[in-house]
Design brief:
The protein is an all-alpha fold. 42% of the residues lie in helices and 0% in strands.
Length: 111
């Protein structure tokens, strides 16, 4: 396929597993960021603050911003992003958490 025939859009998939060592620090940081967002409507602010106070995973999700990941990359513009955060049971020794799992499946399917 020539360059003219290929799309200029690229999907980047990232999965992170983070260990929350200090949930209180994460929550406080999220609340500071929310308080500093002057563009957030009051009703939304109240909803987000309550969610952040109830769950460190929600607090973490409010701190992770895909725009921050790519804003300094020259020649790209973020068009759409979605992300979520959830508590999980994690065992790094389990084959379930093999980081190359998706690559192996693609190779098996001829990809």
């Amino acid at each position: 396929m020539s360059t003219a025939e290929t799309s200029r859009f690229v999907r980047v998939r990232v999965e992170l597993i983070l260990g929350v060592e200090d949930a209180d620090a994460v929550t406080k940081s999220a609340l500071r960021r929310i308080a500093g967002d002057a563009g957030m409507p009051a009703a939304e602010r109240t909803h987000v603050e309550n969610a952040v106070k109830e769950d460190a995973a929600e607090a973490l999700a409010s701190l992770v911003d895909p725009f921050d990941l790519v804003s300094q990359v020259p020649g790209v513009e973020l068009h759409q992003a979605s992300w979520s955060s959830e508590r999980i049971d994690y065992d790094p020794a389990s084959p379930e958490w093999d980081l190359d799992e998706d690559d192996v499946e693609d190779d098996d399917n001829g990809g």
